[in-house]
Amino acid sequence: MGLRVPDPAMSLTRRGLLTLAGAATVAGCGRLSDGPGTGRLLTSKVHPPRFVTPLPIPATARPVRVTADADHYVLTQRVADVNLLPDRKTRIWGYDGTFPGPTLRGRRGRPMVVTIRNELPVPTSTHLHGGVTPPDSDGFPTDLTTPRGYSPAPPVQHGAPGQVHEISRDYHYPMAQRAATLWYHDHRMDFTGPQVWRGLLGLCVITDPREEALPLPRDERDLPLVICDRAFDEDGSLQYPSQDMAMHAPGARGQFVTGVFGDVILVNGVAWPRHEVSGVRYRLRLVNASNARRYRLALRAGGRRLPMIQIGSDDGLLSAPITHTEIIVTPGERYDVVVDFAGLPIGTEATLVNDFGTGGTTEVMRFAVVRQATDDSRVPDRLAAAEPPLTTADAVTERQFDFRYDEGRWTVNRRLYDPAGSLAAPRLDTVELWRFTSDFHHPVHVHLAHFQVLSRAGRSPEPWETGWKDTVDVRPYETVEVLAKFAGHRGKYMLHCHNLEHEDMAMMANFDVV
Ligand code: C2O
Ligand code: CU
Fold this sequence. Notes:
By secondary structure, this protein is mostly beta strands. 7% of the residues lie in helices and 41% in strands.
């Protein structure tokens, strides 16, 4: 425990090596806008069957203790051998040894304390993505929990939040935020990509009285769908092209510098599942937990696309539902939609497809209508409490963050990540206009602050990009403007690219809420 003083040059030296590793490949691509599939695909040596394995629902975490102030949970990060594939085991690193980890179910206003125990061979940090969390529980990348007796001690930089805890620590989640689908995942400096790839991710679903009073589909008709791509060796092991398999050097090697893509699509931790449904409405909480893959999702039945009625974005319900036939979901984003299987004959199959995929990645999972049932759910015209949208008049400051591959490195405003640095100091309880510019696909994620997307390439955002969000799809040579509200806590937070390979290769920046 306690603060250690590290060699401040260390991170830069390691980043210097990356320059050499990545430059050649990316330079060879010319413009970095090769379209939605940009990045290199890892090819699996196994070919799991599609639409056979039943869709599992991640277990709900049970509190170990309920006190007057909070519900207490313990999640243990450990090695486990599980069935991501139907016919062979895969070694994973999971919260409680599962992929995804147990779902934390919270209620607005009821704090949660989550003890994370690290029984893995590597340091970890856990971030609650979308959480309005005090800075010392936010999963800062140098705020590490190490295995027992881990050596060498991880470097901590001057001025950076960098407590190092041995074996376990508590994260305090106030749950003082609206009903939403959040997710938690590893956030270790330089190694988030390989650690999330191995399974360190899970959901956190928050409800509130207003949402509970709505007649939306619930219980077994409220399905979380955690979507991610992976690649497998013949023995079932996960492939990941680390620059250094011993995980001493950060980042992905060579051609994978632009992002790691697998050719097997997992939903809730199984390959291309199938789910039997009744001919009624279902709520689907779509979560893109992929390292780098963007999806354009649609639900196809016969020759047509079923409407997806969007009820929520990353950080809560919309004020009113919006109907779409497709939604683009970038890494880190969540979309909450209701689909209706009513009127489809028994035996109908509806496939969740990905129009950005190639080969097997064009399909995600399948629903099979197997029975009729009564449906007392509906999607009301009003969802969240009416709240006027933010406007530019609300913004007290404008700032620009440029996400760019610069002379062999992934940078924000031409800088490599410095855990002790800071690029902005927004004031608590103010709104700022943040302008994101880019050279490539960068899913930009802001910690703490929730935002509304104001414009994309000078025009309206995509129709599904309304409501409160924390992650936005920034496309090559496009400018995206958001109005971000800094509320809840003062302290050091960060924004970064949620392409986890870019993130690990320095595309992060801090800001201080003052
Ligand atoms: Cu989901 Cu800082 O990440
Ligand atoms: Cu990026």
